[in-house]
Amino acid sequence: MARLSNYVLSLLGTFVFSQGIQAYDYLSHARSSSDALMHWYNQDTGVFNGTGWWNSAECITALADIQGIDSKSNFDDVLQNTFEINKNIWTTKSDFYDDEGWWALAWIKAYDLTRNQTYLKAAEQLFDDMAKGWTTKCNGGIWWDKDKTYVNAIANELFLSVAAHLARRTWDIKYLNWAVKEWQWFEQSGMINKNNTINDGLDGSCSNNGYTVWSYNQGVILGALVELSKASFDSSYIHIAKDIAWAAIHELTDSKGVLHETCEKGCGGDVSQFKGIFNRNVALLYTATSDPGLKQFLEVNAQSIWKNDRDSENRLGLKWSGPYDKADASTHSSALMALIAAASVQNI
After folding, report:
1. Is the bond into 292 cis (omega within 30 degrees of 0)?
2. Where does the signal peptide begin and end (predicted)?
3. Beta bridge partner(s), residue 201
4. Which of 77, 205, 300, 332 has the most CB atoms in a 10 Å sphere around its CB?
């Protein structure tokens, strides 16, 4: 993948340096947009109006992320309010295991910020419920849903990521064992295609179904492998993550290096969340590799969002290359994650 990495680095570098990186204060932009996200927050429900249950977990994660890098941001009261209102329904609110995975990662992030064991216990509870979805249908992996209709990439990537994150925070060997078991299955499942990108899932015969290469499926695996590398003290996982990241950047960016989904209009509230998840996890990979091309990718996208995809109230839309159309909590939090990702690596 070295040739691919060099190609994309060259492409991104041409654009970045022509724009002037130093003109962009990524942290300030992320802070302003974090405040704007609160426009959709519902104090009574603890989630965000106009978007879904799992999307609200990503909104919470974004707020926790900005607080983690910005001394001027404090969303502790929001985290606590959301948790208290919904604390009895984490494993019953949804029939989808991936929804549980998003919330587990959100509460692990909240734990990292606050060291509040209640958040970590919630993540462990969610993981235990996800583990009930392990199946022998395709020789392993977890189901996407509790009705057992589909084995797909995102549920299994999240299961791996939550296990690896918990392994590092509890040092309970069961989580590391689960993470290794999941990765060994996932790597051999066929969902990673010949181009090193990841398709959506498996068909009825447990073969790659050839469905869309969504950006979030390329993203969650990166953070999962970074955590697994740290938990197992095995750097080989980082090399695999870099191959997947660069393959995705090659396939999903335009000529200026801006990330796109294959469908960016009329695709519903799930797809509008995906790209920010990729960028958030690219930032995690960058911290483990110091790969300058990854940093430039993050900066290119943050610059384009701020220049081309926001309104006068710093609300962020779906198409990062512009023009700005409209925003909701999903499009906004996704683009916000890209701003936070660029801010988080700016001085590293």
Report:
1. no
2. 1-23
3. 152
4. 332
Distance CA 251, CA 248 (A): 5
Q: How far is CA 58 from CA 167, 183, 229, 270, 327, in A?
A: 22, 23, 24, 11, 16
Which residues sit opposite 152 in a β-bridge?
A: 201
Could you write out the DSSP letters of every residue in 148-207? ----BHHHHHHHHHHHHHHHHHH--HHHHHHHHHHHHHHHHSS-B-TTS-B-SBB-TTSS
Cβ count within 10 A of residue 251: 15
Q: In the numeric block, which tokens belong to residue 331?
A: 């499009």
With residues binned 3-state (H G I as helix, E B as strand, rest as coil), the percentages for the chain, rounded to 5, are 65, 5, 30
How much is the pTM?
0.94
Distance, in Å, from the CA atom of 305 to the CA atom of 276, rounded to the nearest integer, reads 11
DSSP per residue over 208-229, as a string?
B------HHHHHHHHHHHHHHH
Whole domain around residue 320: which residue ranges?
2-345
- Residues 235-280: pLDDT tens digits? 999 999 999 999 999 999 999 999 999 888 878 889 999 999 999 9
Domain count, the chain: 1
* CA 83/CA 123 separation, integer angstroms: 12
CATH number for the domain that contains residue 86? 1.50.10.20
Give the C-alpha distances (Å, rounded to integers) separating 225 from 217, 247, 284, 318: 13, 16, 10, 28
Asked if 318 contacts 331 with a C-beta cutoff of 8 angstroms, the reply is: yes
User: What whole-number distance in Å separates Cα of residue 332 and Cα of residue 51?
Assistant: 11
Average pLDDT of the residues in 323-335: 97
